[in-house]
Amino acid sequence: MSRDPVAVIGGGAAGMMAALSARRAGAPVVLIEPNEKLGRKLYITGKGRCNLTNNTTPQGVLENVPRNGRFLYSAVTRFPPAAVMEYFEHLGVPLKTERGGRVFPCSDRAADVIDALFFALKKAGVTLLRDRATALEVREGRVTGVVLERQTLAAGAVVLATGGLSYPATGSTGDGYRLARQVGHTIAEPRPSLVPLEEAGETCARMQGLSLKNVTFTLKNQKKKVVFQEQGEMLFTHFGLSGPLVLSASAHANWAKDTYTGIIDLKPALDEEKLEARILRDIAQAPNKAFHNVLEGLLPRLMVPVAGERAQIPPDLPVNTLTKAQRRRLVETMKHFTVPIAGPRPIKEAIITAGGVKTGEVDPGTMMSKKAPGLFLAGELLDVDAYTGGFNLQIAWCTGRAAGEGAAQYCQEEAQ
């Protein structure tokens, strides 16, 4: 085997897994990361709890990858969620499965996952190098090293696992795209995914900070086609909409060609007929109250003035004078509360970057570049992304594993 190490660029989820996998396969490994701490983005996943995979089958993972899922078949079959869970349990991180198959550490601490990986790297003898990669060293079309800010490192193989453009404060600065382009890779335009949505208007700002639970959020395009519909939690913000439902919906949007409207069903457990009966019952219990007072029994306080305006009902109107037409407008407002969407928030606020190195230019079995032998790619840098629920980290783990093993095998073959 070549004495030059496998150089892994990027100390996030995919990079750490690639380093551990290459080391386990017998290669000397150098993990290059400019940040003081490894896995900084892992600290903020799952609201600081680290939703590290989804307890499902490989097919279940692929069904949650809207673009280029077929490319992942080999990697996710060889290192499926069950194996990922076993891997972390073996590292000393007890796990639990929650709603929707989401897998978390029992401690609810992302730091436990990062610490376990860090100690595993130290124990395995992976060399950590605090530096930033500025270029790849290429000889006769093959990648043979990394040019760093402070030195040049000869390498038997290089794994690029630098992440995308989301959360740049964690180190995802887009360096990987530049390095991949250097050897001829095509980059599908990076765009935000799993991102809050901006409203075309100012309704949401009036309800800023209001969190809704057990509502149904629907995203429709300009042709009235439903591209997303799910029940759960969401949040009104000063710019528009956020929260789990909205982030999930954003992954289904094609901002380049479509415009969208968000529709909130505030009472999904009641159909329109039952909701009107509920309103009539509330009116009968307090016939002389003002409309806005009765509405506070049906909706969160911050929504009351907005819903009243939408239904064109004066707030001080005695409820026993409500007409049938006014009641119908109120039901319509509560079952179909519309929010026109201006677009996604900036990519730096996205949890995940969609786009990246085109998958057709990468071997799906080993993650080796088809443009430059000796270069391997993993994680968010690739043009694959998934919905929320632990699927994006599953992609990081399985592509990191494949790239690390592929790089070690390449070194071995080159040394023979």
Estimated share of beta-strand residues: 15-25%
- In total, how many beta strands? 19
Morphology call: elongated
> Which residue ranges are poorly predicted, with pLDDT under 50 across at least 5 consecutive positions?
none
Average pLDDT, all residues: 93
Q: What class, by secondary structure content?
A: alpha+beta
Strand order in space, largest sheet:
12-15-14-13-16-17
Q: Could you give a short account of the major beta sheet? A: 6 strands, antiparallel, barrel
How many helical elements?
13
Terminal CA distance reads 7 Å
Helical residues, percent = 25-40%
- The Cα radius of gyration reads 25 Å
Describe the structure.
The protein is α+β, with helices and mostly antiparallel strands and 416 residues long. The chain is built from 13 helices and 19 strands. The chain has helices at 13-24, 58-62, 73-78, 81-90, 110-124, 175-182, 203-206, 244-250, 272-285, 291-295, 304-310, 324-335, 391-415, and strands spanning 6-9, 29-32, 53-54, 95-97, 102-105, 127-129, 133-139, 142-148, 152-154, 157-160, 187-193, 197-199, 211-221, 226-236, 240-242, 260-265, 337-344, 352-357, 375-377. A six-stranded antiparallel β-barrel has the order 12-15-14-13-16-17. Helix 1 (13-24) packs parallel to helix 5 and helix 9 (272-285) packs across helix 12 (324-335). The longest helix is centred in the last third of the chain and has 25 residues, at 391-415. The termini are close together. The mean pLDDT is 93.
